[in-house]
Design brief:
- The complex is a heterodimer.
- Chain A is of the alpha+beta class.
- Chain A has 18 helices and seven strands.
- Chain B has a domain of 58 residues.
- Chain B has a four-stranded antiparallel β-sheet, covered by helices on one side.
- Chain B has two helices and four strands; from the N terminus they run E-H-E-E-H-E.
- The chains are: A alpha+beta, B alpha+beta.
- Chains A and B meet through helix 9, strand 4 and strand 6 of A and strand 1, helix 1, strand 2, strand 3 and strand 4 of B.
Chain lengths: 467, 84
Amino acid sequence: MKEVSRKILILSVCNLLWGLIPWPAFQLFSEFSSFTVIFARFLMMAATMLGIVGIILLWLRVRNGKDANIQVRHVFRYLIQKNPEFYFRAQWIYLLIVAIFGLNLMTMLFFYCLKTIGAITTSIGVIISLILVSSIKWGMGKEEISGFKIIYLITLIIATVILGIVSQQQSSSGDFSAMGIIVVVFYGIALAFFVLSSGADRMSNSEYQILRAEPKYKLFRVFLKLSVLSLFSVVTYIPLLLIMQFLFQEPALQTEITHFFAELPKIGQIIGSWNGMALIIGCTILPYTLYYLLSTSWPKSASFDLWVGVLQLIEPIINLVLGITVLNEVFPVEWLLVIVFFMLIAIFTKYVSETHAQLNVILLLKIEPQRHLEIMKECYRIKASREVRSLIGDYDIMVDLQFTTSTAMNRLISQKISQLPGLKRYEILLVTTQDIDRAVPDMEKGSTVSQRIIKSQISPSITKSKS
Amino acid sequence: MVIFMEIQLVSFIKVHKGHKGAFLNALKGIEEIVRVQSITGDYDILIEINVAESEDLVSIFESIEKIPGLMEFQSHFVLEEWQK
């Protein structure tokens, strides 16, 4: 099995495990508040991850003594370093914000919805997050819109609308309220924020030096990040609940929060139960660890974010099936089949748009001096560009582009590239096959600078001059 | 204190007719070559090399030059890289 296929399979397993959350969670909901269950989940996750970080540090210390390449001071250095992908804030601020608005809020809303309105309606939130992630990425110029992507978005919107309407109709006989849909929408927004922000912390140059000396730093960093994230989630959990209690007067929410404070001494019972262990180990620690390990070793040729988007659709499908088969929720089977059908179309179109119908092009630019940075910025802003490199050699800038049609490429070249100010000449190379991809993924790669000259055979190449 | 600095190169390779398949296979054996793409145009293959020190490049270039079928080889240093 190809490396990328194996990793896609593992990512599917992560989504499958997340999709199974309602199963053990519902058993626990009969006895505990949804907020108590989440708190127990994060508490155990923080304890486990911190334990793993401590064991790695201790093991390296015993093995290498004072010369260990990863030491406690590296933990503090990691926390205080600036994160260029998060407005140059310190890493701990980034992790705190992700913990509060991503992990905590998203999980609180998810579990609250799960308990009050059921697994089926809650799955709307996942679909909303997928629509948001795709739209935001497109708006930010990180994704190019194509026919397949439009179909993907339309099918997701149709599935969301059907789910919402049918859930609303079913609720006339139940205790479903319009407030539930609002909470689901907020859950979708929090999940989208988590998906977009959780990977925005590529390695710094100093970390890259540690990685050179100690290849296990990659693994260590994953556990360190997860431990800090879950620790921040635990620390900010109670203040966040108190704020929610103050802001929202929804009776069901107030009851859940009141029960949480009353049940705090019973947290051990959740952790010690089979359902608690299934939820904490099987549906939390295992998938989160695998997810972050994958994010650090994902092949450069396949976008991690995009595959997360494709496979995330597994979660609502499992939620729907679980809701009807195991949790005995009422939902017309014919509509369930229609929704699953639309979801499968969404998976297919997303897959096709990301893996096929792609035209990979390398664009080489020779430009006038003083225009370098300006042109690099221009190239970076092009939606189809994936990488922009500054070069020393025959050419000054190399741009890695991806198109869905040759028309889109022609349009870009004639309307944008050839009009670039200071352009002397350019060359277009079509990539026919990707034969090897062992490149370090995005988040580990820092900008590198070298000014040494290497002797290499320089040969003239046929280029197009700007007319 | 040893300072580690990654050096990144992109190289364009032109090979003699009928040698491309074997050439690509031979490139797979060089660990420092992190990416290989077949391209159309003046050159046949585009490779990306990542090394810790410039001295490492000597042996890599020697290995590439020894592969049968090499016609032309042109390299560019990467100064900066912006990824999306």
